[in-house]
Design brief:
Layout lengths: L1 H19 L3 H11 L33 E2 L5 E2 L1 E5 L26 H13 L5 E5 L6 H18 L5 E5 L6 H10 L2 E3 L7 H7 L5 H24 L11 E7 L6 H15 L3 E6 L17 H16 L4 H6 L14 H8 L6 E2 L5 H4 L7 H10 L7 H5 L5 H4 L3 E2 L6 H5 L4 H4 L14
Parallel strand pairs: 3-4, 4-5, 5-6, 6-7, 7-8, 9-10
Antiparallel strand pairs: 1-2
């Protein structure tokens, strides 16, 4: 036992010496690559700030390298890195787990500050996304992450976008301080089921993760209320909080994932839930699947998320679109079309009379098209050609609507509409990290 302990200490000392020999460019190569598995880096919803008055540095507006998009289509460029890819945890699905044989690196807080400012001055970025493996302890790592944001805001008056990935095991006061400096904070739930988390990340506590999310929500609500009463009240995570779930690492079905996402939105007021398809990693644990899930599965989950957030679908309605035997959403069609084909008795919908909520459920009609229909029908009754001008494929919409000059009598009687409305060819989604 003593010999093994001595060997571990020797390995640790050698590892630290090797990291010290890396220059900034080498560290950046390692830690930017390690950050690519984190999907939750969109910057939508933040407050607008700039330094046009000559005071401060940076902006949350403008154009640059594409890393994220705001709701109005603005491209927000982000320096997306880890503070370190070393970690004291051994989560089976994580390439940076303690037992993983990967090249390690670590930035100091000042190095991240210098990189952010240097990249901004070169017009490469407009913000920072910072996450980290856990070194020494959760509190120590969280202190380093907060120090980066504090130095940027207070020492350099950086007004660009900052997204911090917080650590739920850290002292709540440290997590709260992160919200004072960051535009958005995120706390990853990691996996959609408690059983999956216990099996694949036994060192993480689901209750503690949700407790940290609950505290963050309370702080955001309290600060928002204070801002209404006092103009001098400090901002707190103005872009809210988000989370990420890994898809395909455990046995959770799409129905499980959709239900979990809905619960997170309702309980913690999240701005976004991100879905990341599990990717097999080197020297993987035997408990992990040998193959990655189809990336189209991740895409369908994002579409389902959109239906709940913007189209008025209840979680149970989205789950109803899954296969009854497997609990999975179909990969060959989007979930709204799958739902419509499953509930044919709800159609056709009269575009001249139906309320917004029913029009949202018509395959092929987006929120903007529905808004245009509602506005146009105030002045005249709409014909099929009018609807065709508002959608990409009227052939897809026709079986589900009634217009002034159109009623799908023959189509509505067909027992199988799928060949007529489903995509004709399979589209292969490119691998995000192939290479």
């Amino acid at each position: 036992m003593a010999a093994r302990f001595a060997l571990d200490k020797l390995r640790e000392r050698t590892y630290i010496e090797r990291m010290a020999q890396l220059d900034t460019r080498q560290k950046l190569e390692i830690l930017a690559d390690a950050a690519k598995y984190d999907a939750s880096c969109a910057s939508s919803g933040t407050a607008k700030r700039n330094s046009k008055d000559g005071k401060g540095l940076g902006s949350t507006e403008g154009m640059g390298i594409c890393h994220a998009y705001a709701p109005d289509g603005r491209c927000i460029s982000l320096l997306k890195i880890l503070l370190t890819n070393s970690c004291i945890f051994d989560c089976h699905y994580c390439i940076n787990r303690k037992s993983s044989n990967v090249r390690r690196a670590r930035f100091t807080a000042q190095e991240v500050v210098n990189l952010t400012l240097s990249f901004y001055r070169r017009n490469y970025i407009e913000g920072l996304f910072l996450s980290s493996g856990i070194i020494h302890s959760s509190d120590y790592t969280m202190e380093q992450i907060v120090e980066v944001a504090r130095a940027l805001r207070e020492d350099h008056h950086f007004r660009g976008y900052i997204h911090l990935k917080t650590i739920p095991d850290a002292d709540p006061e440290l997590v709260h301080r992160a919200g004072l400096y960051a535009d958005r904070v995120s706390i990853n739930v990691e996996l959609p089921t408690a059983g999956g988390l216990k099996r694949l990340a036994p060192e993480k506590d689901g209750a503690r993760i949700e407790g940290a999310m609950r505290d963050m929500k309370s702080a955001i609500v309290d600060t928002t209320d204070a801002k209404k009463r006092y103009k001098s009240a400090p901002k707190f995570a103005p872009a809210g909080q988000s989370t990420q779930m890994i898809v395909g690492a455990d046995a959770a079905t799409d129905g499980d994932i959709v239900t979990k996402a809905s619960t997170l939105y309702d309980r913690f007021g999240l701005r976004r839930v991100y879905y990341s398809a599990f990717s097999p990693i080197p020297d993987a644990s035997a408990v992990l699947p040998l193959q990655r899930p189809p990336l189209m599965r991740e895409h369908r989950l994002y579409q389902s998320d959109w239906l709940m957030r913007f189209y008025g679908f209840l979680p149970a309605e989205v789950v109803a679109a899954t296969d009854a035997a497997t609990g999975m959403l179909p990969l060959d069609m989007d979930p709204k079309l799958a739902w419509a084909l499953k509930f044919r008795e709800r159609f056709p919908v009269d575009v001249n009379r139906a309320p917004r909520e029913l029009l949202w459920r018509v395959p092929g009609l987006g929120t903007k098209a529905v808004a245009s229909i509602l506005a146009a029908r105030r002045w005249r009754r709409l014909r099929l050609d009018d609807v065709a001008r508002l959608t990409v494929s009227i052939a897809r919409v026709r079986p589900f609507i009634v217009a002034e000059d159109w009623r799908p009598v023959v189509l509505a009687d067909r027992s199988d509409l799928t060949p007529l409305v489903a995509p004709k060819t399979k589209t292969q989604q490119l691998e995000l990290f192939a290479g």
